[in-house]
Specification:
27% of the residues lie in helices and 34% in strands. The longest helix is centred in the C-terminal third of the chain and has 23 residues. It is globular and about 80 Å long. It is an alpha+beta fold. The chain has six domains: 100 residues, Rossmann fold; 155 residues, ATP-grasp fold, B domain (D-amino Acid Aminotransferase, Chain A, domain 1); 69 residues, Dna Ligase, domain 1; 105 residues, ATP-grasp fold, B domain (D-amino Acid Aminotransferase, Chain A, domain 1, 2-Layer Sandwich); 124 residues, 2-Layer Sandwich (Glycoprotein, Type 4 Pilin), CATH 3.30.700.30; 67 residues, OB fold (Dihydrolipoamide Acetyltransferase, E2P), CATH 2.40.50.100. The chain has an eight-stranded antiparallel β-sheet with strand order 14-13-10-11-12-15-22-20. Strands 27-26-25-24-31-30-29-28 form an eight-stranded antiparallel β-sheet. Strands 3-2-1-4-5 form a five-stranded parallel β-sheet. The N and C termini lie far apart (70 Å).
Length: 662
């Protein structure tokens, strides 16, 4: 067995590999850029080597620096994680030439599957069902339009070397092909150094379902079932689960057989994933094969009981698989949500910043798993993927796994940067998700105007009001004891508050007890018990129907409560305070309708506007790049350009003006 493994990656996947290696008694080496000097994976590893400045192109992607780190530390194997060099055949060959084991598939298999055009030809030859399309590179926009007409709209424009949703565009018309072809090429060139583009038929009402395969160097290939990955934004997965709520046994078996056949055809060994698009009639078509560990591998591990990283290490060490296909069992249900630093209310644009507060949900052995590479104080930078963590839950069935995910998301407290936990909670609570009626269009269809937290209604609104009044009463009691030594006593007796949620006000009477309170919201009774302490931003209480968890942000007499993706800004006042507040003038927000603002930190790549130009609503005004993804900004209304506040090449901050109209 290997004595020392270098992990050629960062963040949560580096931490994940370190954990398995440590359990196997193998020493580990981390590599890090300037931006990751104090990162969790660096602290976890037995050794760490600096490989350069923050940009990945100058650190994690530089093969010579990784090879130098191997020589320096004497590592005898390398695990690439995912992303970066994980699917780089030249890197695998360089390791082989240096006598270092690559914990992944053979270089030829990586090369064969790494090119989307060639991989589809190989899949077709191996008897794998493929999507209709043009499988050769496309020279220019004119050819792209001609091919799209022949295939029939809608079409998917894709980068041959693409991955992670980069270099992909859907087009429903010639105009969209023209714009999408250009943007996909630019993204592909920026992200992969390869701007080859191909076009295939876009399957409507599609599901994204993938098969996990595992193969050794002795000709043994098995599959470990499927993962449903249909909840996506910008072609990047957000929610994954195993098994799929859609597949039947016959379809599952057929997809597994084809996946294993493809792996065998390319001489595959190690863990890998064959991705399919599945239509409403359960017809499935090959998309690509990822020759690496997948981000969503935890859900497969949870339902099979296997450690995929350990399996990869053992296969790379020359061992045979201990499992045959008939030995693979699936128990229960697992769901994974990707917790991202992003702003769901702004089309899920990436967010950066420091995690000023970071408290993960309780992991007490009841089916909650968190894979992360950050902690409180960590920096989410513009240089890397904005993932904060992968949150996975396990249950006896799908409903159980969903309920545990909802509880875990309610308890995940993150402040200092934007994040998507409330959105994820909203997805979990959505009736369509609960029914398993999923497609890759789920987010676009169910959140057509973008995500905005729902306001509490009915009984839930009463519960929000009750929690806010109870919490405020506790803070008010502490304020009355200001200057008194010792822990503040609990409030005693009854207190009455005016609780304002939106335009409505409730009269809330709170009768505090040692372990909770009896509360009346406009006379409607609510009882709660809790061990909550002052200052805790997460409020958990027992109600008559079980435990519910709320997140609390407090500013004076105002509170923002979040629960199950529902959010409310609440003001708790005395009767006198409410009367005075009613006399306060309303602050009118500034009119920004004349400006095009940068929706995220990023680089201004291009500017289509110039002073005096007449611009129509919907026309492209600027392109901003963030984390190697291009974002086209368009005019919201007709207008004439008055001033340009930025120029191509400028670094932008959130809400920085770019163009001003007359």
């Amino acid at each position: 067995m290997f004595k020392k493994i270098l992990i050629a990656n960062r963040g949560e996947i580096a931490c994940r590999v370190i954990r398995s290696a440590r359990e196997m008694g193998i020493a580990t080496v981390a590599v890090y850029s300037d931006a990751d000097k104090g990162a969790l994976h660096v602290r976890m590893a037995d050794e760490a080597v600096h490989v350069g400045p923050p940009p990945a192109s100058e650190s994690y992607l530089v093969m010579d620096k990784i090879l130098a780190a191997i020589r320096e530390t004497g590592a005898d194997a390398v695990h690439p994680g995912y992303g970066f060099l994980s699917e780089n055949a030249d890197f695998a060959r360089a390791l082989e030439a240096a006598g270092i084991t690559f914990i992944g598939p053979p270089p030829d298999a990586i090369a064969a599957m790494g090119d989307k055009i060639e991989s589809k030809k190989l899949a077709d030859a191996a008897g794998v069902s493929t999507v209709p399309g043009h499988m050769d590179t496309i020279a220019d926009v004119a050819e792209a339009i001609r091919i799209s007409r022949d295939i029939g709209y809608p079409v998917m424009i894709k980068a041959s070397a693409g991955g992670g949703g980069k270099g992909m565009r859907i087009a429903y018309s010639e105009a969209e092909v023209e714009e999408g072809f250009r943007s996909a090429q630019n993204e592909a060139r920026s992200s992969f150094g390869d701007d080859r583009i191909f076009i295939e038929k876009f399957i409507e009402e599609p599901r994204h379902i993938e098969i996990q395969v595992l193969a050794d160097a002795h000709g043994n290939v098995i599959h470990l079932g499927e993962r449903e990955c249909s909840i996506q934004r910008r072609h990047q997965k957000v929610v994954e689960e195993a098994p799929s709520p859609f597949l039947d046994a016959e379809t599952r078996a057929a997809m597994g057989v084809q996946s294993c056949a493809l792996a065998a055809a390319v001489g595959y060994s190690s863990a890998g994933t064959v991705e399919f698009i599945v239509d409403k009639d359960r017809n499935f078509y090959f998309l690509e094969m990822n020759t690496r560990l997948q981000v969503e591998h935890p859900v497969t591990e949870m339902v099979t009981g296997l450690d995929l990283v350990e399996q990869m290490i053992r296969v790379a060490n020359g061992e045979k698989l201990e499992l045959a296909q008939d030995d693979v069992t699936f128990t229960g249900w697992a769901i994974e949500t990707r917790v991202y630093a992003e702003d769901p209310s702004r089309s899920f644009l990436p967010a950066i910043g420091r995690l000023v507060r970071y408290r993960a949900p309780n992991q007490d052995g009841i089916g909650v798993r968190i894979d992360t590479g950050v902690g409180e104080g960590s920096e989410i930078s513009m240089f890397y993927d904005p993932m904060i963590a992968k949150l996975a839950t396990y249950g006896a069935d799908r409903a159980d796994a969903i309920a545990r995910m909802q509880d875990a998301l309610d308890g995940y407290f993150i402040r200092g940067t934007g994040h998507n936990t409330a959105f994820l909670a909203s997805v979990m609570a959505h009736p369509r998700f609960a029914q398993g009626r999923l497609t890759t269009n789920f987010i676009a269809e169910e959140y057509p105007d973008g995500y905005a937290p729902a306001a509490p209604e009915g009984d839930l609104r009463d519960r929000f009001a009750a929690v806010a009044a109870y919490v405020h009463g506790r803070y008010a009691a502490r304020a009355r004891q200001n200057g008194v030594a010792g822990t503040p006593a609990l409030p005693s007796g009854e207190a009455t508050w005016q609780v304002q949620i939106g335009a409505d006000t409730n009269t809330v009477n709170v009768d505090h007890r040692t372990d909770g309170a009896e509360i009346a919201v406009d006379g409607r009774q609510i009882a709660l018990t809790t061990s909550w302490t002052l200052g805790d931003p997460v409020f958990a209480a027992n109600f008559d129907d079980g435990v519910a968890t709320f997140q609390i942000d407090r500013t004076g007499v105002s509170y923002r409560l979040t629960h199950r993706g529902v959010e409310a800004d609440i003001r708790v006042l005395s009767a006198r305070g409410a009367a005075l507040n009613a006399r306060m003038p309303e602050k009118v927000p500034p009119d920004l309708s004349r400006f095009v603002l940068s929706p995220m930190p990023g680089l201004l790549v291009s500017l289509a506007a110039e002073v005096g130009l007449q611009v129509r609503a919907g026309e492209e005004v600027a392109v901003v790049e963030a984390m190697k993804m291009e974002n086209v900004l368009r005019a919201a209304a007709d207008g004439v350009v008055k001033t340009l506040h930025a120029a191509p090449g400028d670094s932008l901050v959130v809400d920085q003006p770019i163009v001003e109209f007359e």
